[in-house]
């Protein structure tokens, strides 16, 4: 496959002035008629005219009304064109009913739907399918279906047709069309300047009862973007459609967002608190793209983080504002360490702005999204809130309607602050997670902190330069009082010393507060100091972090030296659990352990070979010890966390349920499932139903409840996804593969639907001890299914290959078993470009 390089970027030689499309919908033979007004760019001399196009049947093509016979290749079309402006017309036929890859125009449960990001529009018609080509679109949809939608504003409709016009120039990846037998949940929003916007959430009949929360989240997002970023919506309608077959979470098409059903549909009976929070965040994310992504888009796909990093950062700000900021931050860091750190420290490592790719779909990664958002957070911290706000205002004013680069983005910050950001820019080009080593010194009232940074080699990158790292630090006195407020140290050299004078006693440093940079802190702090921070740190993030470090060290001691769980950790967590002044959601997080996969990473980092079974046993033992330690507290906490009011998925209630669920898990370890069974019997919301069922299964009970759950929810595909997933994620290590295998034979295992495929194979890869069970059967099962899915849906297959990315951490036997599966996948005839690229990078 061909490799595309950032350095080879060249602009398209033509402007596109106007696009007119007519769709005559038919499942196997949809006709797409296009009329596109092109004009050679004034400065381009006889540029080549190439239009992307894949899997299209060309019926007719014409230029300025004259039929032509263009040259067709596997990837597109070329032809001679006149100088100046001209109209290109084409009529093509496509087959949405057989489009299982879910890119371009496809069908899901009888509904037509598009997904064009990144390069799906070329499967709809011939076009310069690149984000720097922007145009207005006018679309007519002809079809015998009640709902016919496209981007922009509706201009006309009648029996069997609808017309839409999108006045905002956009790249083709933001094009969308939806047609089907759908029902609308409608509302409206009045923007700050008085524009009336019709809001519709279109769903399959039967799902009407799951729309209210998503609609409310949309309205709150619209208001927040006005209040916080001064961004107003710019069309008369905003439509969202829920679709069951979808490769990712959602898509921000202009005025017509398309959502995976799982990312928008929710009711208290069928969705958990975590589902509600995720839905709220994804709705906000897609809506915020209207400005950061749509009005200002990317020049090329290497700049993906320009819209994704910024929009993730914005949606995190929103969630922090409407829920709890520390709880959101801790959750994001847990997620970053679980998904982005392994990527950044393994064979798939790539810069936030990659420099080459074979298949761009493989670069919608945690590095581009989540590390990209961390980079924005660091920038904001370094320049300050006021300058950040001014820089964003300038960005919107200067670049509205443009396709931009990271250079454009950083320039607005340089112009606003007068600061030179070339060292900071290394965050976009150097892959890998920096390590920051901490050394301390104390004497004569002066505390010194020496920070040294290093950045490990990564694929294609060695001998990296020091980064500009903001390290937020506060100092605590011996009684726990804060003797120095949080300040941001700017680490720019390989090694740098920072001094704090005039201190009465040796302080305890709280370093990397709020996780001010995505780095690994190497701080040889004593357990006593960690326990002190756990008890006293005034920064909630670092207080949690101290608990996490203590838990990690406790587990490592158990795994490597057979130690018993330390009382300092157990006492520390217990006093947090007991502290009614603390938010229940925060307390629940404080009681959490690092994941088994994270522990494997820590061991590997220390030069040890992780034994998945030993890690699993230690985690189980520590959970049991924690339950016993908290025994006396559990009944009181259980009753305190009961929610008697009617269900609300807000931070207050969901926090209580989250701590209630921790209490239930602990109690189940002590009472064998008595409380969990009674909670299950009276559960009236999915959060409680699932947590009590999970507790029972973990205790080796709950088979009756599991069967009853299936009977109750058989007709609800989103709940049945949970039913599949729970069984695999909670299976004992030696049962995991068998459970997953059996479920893949279940009549409801509709493997071509990505949500269902992921509901079984995702938890298989995430069940650390089960996936890495020494016999290698789980590796083989996953590989079997990836090989089967690849010809049907390459994008989802390729993403799931990342389950193997950490393979070099493990012992020689496991490595050999994984290598054999990766080589088997690689040797599959006609393997997709997507999967070929992923497997070869992992094997490299
Ligand atoms: N911008 C979107 C990314 C995306 C996508 C979404 C659905 C299916 C396929 C996709 N390929 C790329 C989603 C987002 O980040 O908001
Ligand atoms: Zn996005």
From TrEMBL:
<dbReference type="Pfam" id="PF01433">
    <property type="entry name" value="Peptidase_M1"/>
</dbReference>
<dbReference type="InterPro" id="IPR027268">
    <property type="entry name" value="Peptidase_M4/M1_CTD_sf"/>
</dbReference>
<comment type="similarity">
    <text>Belongs to the peptidase M1 family.</text>
</comment>
<keyword id="KW-0645">Protease</keyword>
<keyword id="KW-0031">Aminopeptidase</keyword>
<dbReference type="Pfam" id="PF11940">
    <property type="entry name" value="DUF3458"/>
</dbReference>
<keyword id="KW-0479">Metal-binding</keyword>
<dbReference type="InterPro" id="IPR038438">
    <property type="entry name" value="PepN_Ig-like_sf"/>
</dbReference>
<keyword id="KW-0482">Metalloprotease</keyword>
<dbReference type="GO" id="GO:0016285">
    <property type="term" value="F:alanyl aminopeptidase activity"/>
</dbReference>
<dbReference type="Pfam" id="PF17432">
    <property type="entry name" value="DUF3458_C"/>
</dbReference>
<dbReference type="InterPro" id="IPR014782">
    <property type="entry name" value="Peptidase_M1_dom"/>
</dbReference>
<keyword id="KW-0862">Zinc</keyword>
<dbReference type="InterPro" id="IPR012779">
    <property type="entry name" value="Peptidase_M1_pepN"/>
</dbReference>
<dbReference type="InterPro" id="IPR001930">
    <property type="entry name" value="Peptidase_M1"/>
</dbReference>
<dbReference type="InterPro" id="IPR024601">
    <property type="entry name" value="Peptidase_M1_pepN_C"/>
</dbReference>
<feature type="domain" description="Peptidase M1 membrane alanine aminopeptidase">
    <location>
        <begin position="213"/>
        <end position="424"/>
    </location>
</feature>
<dbReference type="InterPro" id="IPR045357">
    <property type="entry name" value="Aminopeptidase_N-like_N"/>
</dbReference>
<dbReference type="InterPro" id="IPR042097">
    <property type="entry name" value="Aminopeptidase_N-like_N_sf"/>
</dbReference>
<feature type="domain" description="Peptidase M1 alanyl aminopeptidase Ig-like fold">
    <location>
        <begin position="432"/>
        <end position="523"/>
    </location>
</feature>
<protein>
    <recommendedName>
        <fullName>Aminopeptidase N</fullName>
        <ecNumber>3.4.11.2</ecNumber>
    </recommendedName>
</protein>
<dbReference type="InterPro" id="IPR035414">
    <property type="entry name" value="Peptidase_M1_pepN_Ig-like"/>
</dbReference>
<keyword id="KW-0378">Hydrolase</keyword>
<feature type="domain" description="Peptidase M1 alanyl aminopeptidase C-terminal">
    <location>
        <begin position="528"/>
        <end position="843"/>
    </location>
</feature>
<dbReference type="InterPro" id="IPR037144">
    <property type="entry name" value="Peptidase_M1_pepN_C_sf"/>
</dbReference>
<feature type="domain" description="Aminopeptidase N-like N-terminal">
    <location>
        <begin position="94"/>
        <end position="174"/>
    </location>
</feature>
<dbReference type="Pfam" id="PF17900">
    <property type="entry name" value="Peptidase_M1_N"/>
</dbReference>
């Amino acid at each position: 496959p061909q490799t595309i390089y950032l350095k080879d970027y060249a602009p398209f030689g033509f402007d596109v002035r106007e696009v007119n499309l007519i769709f005559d919908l038919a499942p196997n033979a949809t006709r797409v008629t296009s009329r596109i007004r092109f004009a050679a760019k004034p400065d381009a001399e006889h540029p080549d005219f190439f239009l992307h196009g894949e899997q299209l049947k060309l019926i007719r093509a014409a230029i300025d009304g004259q039929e032509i016979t263009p040259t067709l290749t596997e990837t597109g079309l070329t032809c001679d064109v006149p100088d100046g402006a001209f109209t290109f017309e084409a009529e093509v036929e496509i087959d949405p009913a057989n489009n299982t890859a879910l890119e371009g125009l496809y069908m899901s449960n009888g509904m037509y739907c598009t997904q064009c990001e990144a390069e799906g529009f070329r499967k709809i018609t011939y076009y310069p399918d690149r984000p720097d080509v922007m145009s207005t679109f006018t679309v007519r949809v002809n079809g015998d279906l009640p709902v016919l939608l496209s981007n922009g504003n509706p201009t006309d409709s009648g029996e069997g047709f609808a017309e839409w016009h999108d006045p905002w120039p956009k790249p083709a990846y933001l094009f969308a069309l939806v047609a089907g037998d759908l029902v609308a949940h409608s509302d409206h929003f009045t923007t700050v300047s008085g524009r009336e916007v019709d809001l519709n959430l279109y769903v399959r009949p039967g799902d009407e009862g799951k729309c209210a929360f998503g609609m409310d989240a949309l309205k709150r997002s619209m208001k927040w973007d006005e209040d916080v970023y001064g961004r107003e919506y710019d069309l008369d309608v905003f439509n969202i459609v829920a679709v069951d077959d979808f490769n990712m979470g959602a898509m921000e098409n202009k005025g017509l967002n398309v959502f995976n059903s799982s990312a928008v549909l929710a009711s208290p009976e069928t969705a958990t608190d975590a589902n509600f929070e995720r839905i709220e965040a994804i709705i906000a994310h897609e809506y915020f793209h209207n400005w950061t992504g749509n009005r200002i888009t990317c020049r090329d796909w290497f700049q993906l983080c320009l819209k994704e990093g910024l929009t993730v950062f914005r949606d995190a700000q929103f969630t922090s504002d409407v829920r709890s900021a520390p709880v959101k931050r801790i959750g994001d860091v847990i997620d970053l360490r679980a998904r982005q750190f392994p990527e950044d420290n393994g064979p798939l490592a790539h810069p936030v702005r990659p420099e080459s790719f074979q298949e761009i779909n493989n670069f919608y990664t945690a590095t581009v999204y989540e590390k990209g958002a961390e980079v924005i957070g660091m920038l904001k911290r370094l320049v300050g809130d006021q300058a950040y706000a001014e820089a964003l205002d300038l960005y919107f004013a200067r670049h509205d309607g443009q396709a931009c680069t990271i250079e454009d983005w950083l320039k607005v910050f340089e112009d606003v602050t007068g600061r030179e950001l070339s060292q900071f820019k290394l965050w976009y080009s150097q892959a890998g997670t920096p390590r920051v080593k901490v050394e301390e010194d104390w004497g004569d009232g002066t505390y010194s902190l020496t920070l040294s940074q290093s950045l490990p080699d990564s694929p294609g990158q060695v001998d990296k330069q020091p980064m500009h790292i903001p390290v937020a630090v506060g100092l605590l006195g011996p009684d726990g009082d804060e003797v120095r407020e949080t300040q941001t140290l700017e680490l720019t050299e390989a090694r740098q010393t920072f001094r704090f004078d005039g201190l009465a006693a040796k302080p305890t440093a709280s370093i990397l507060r709020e996780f001010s940079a995505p780095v690994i802190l190497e701080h040889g702090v004593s357990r006593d100091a960690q326990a002190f921070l756990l008890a006293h740190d005034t920064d909630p993030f670092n207080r949690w972090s101290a608990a996490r470090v203590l838990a990690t060290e406790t587990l490592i001691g158990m795994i490597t030296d057979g130690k018993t769980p330390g009382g300092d950790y157990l006492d520390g967590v217990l006093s947090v659990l007991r502290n009614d002044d603390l938010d229940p959601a925060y307390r629940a997080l404080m009681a959490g352990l690092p994941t088994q996969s994270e522990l494997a990473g820590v061991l590997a980092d220390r030069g040890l070979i992780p034994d998945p079974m030993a890690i699993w046993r230690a985690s189980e033992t520590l959970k049991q010890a924690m339950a016993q330690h908290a025994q006396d507290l559990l009944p009181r906490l259980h009753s305190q966390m009961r929610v008697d009011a009617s269900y609300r998925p807000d931070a207050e209630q969901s926090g209580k349920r989250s701590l209630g669920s921790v209490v239930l898990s602990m109690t189940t370890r002590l009472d064998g499932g008595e409380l969990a069974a009674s909670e299950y019997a009276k559960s009236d919301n999915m959060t409680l139903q699932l947590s009590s069922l999970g507790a029972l299964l973990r205790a080796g009970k709950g088979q009756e409840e599991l069967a009853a759950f299936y009977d109750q929810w058989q007709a609800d595909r989103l709940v049945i996804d949970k039913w599949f997933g729970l069984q695999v994620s909670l299976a004992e290590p030696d049962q995991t593969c068998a459970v997953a295998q059996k479920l893949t034979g279940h009549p409801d295992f509709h493997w071509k639907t990505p949500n269902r495929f992921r509901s079984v194979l995702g938890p298989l890869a995430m069940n650390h001890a089960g996936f890495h069970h020494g016999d290698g059967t789980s590796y083989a099962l996953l590989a079997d299914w990836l090989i089967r899915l690849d010809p049907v849906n390459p994008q989802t297959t390729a993403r799931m290959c990342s389950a193997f990315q950490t393979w070099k951490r493990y012992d020689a036997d496991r490595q050999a078993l994984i290598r054999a599966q990766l080589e088997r996948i690689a040797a599959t005839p006609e393997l997709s470009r997507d999967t070929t690229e992923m497997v070869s990078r992992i094997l490299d």
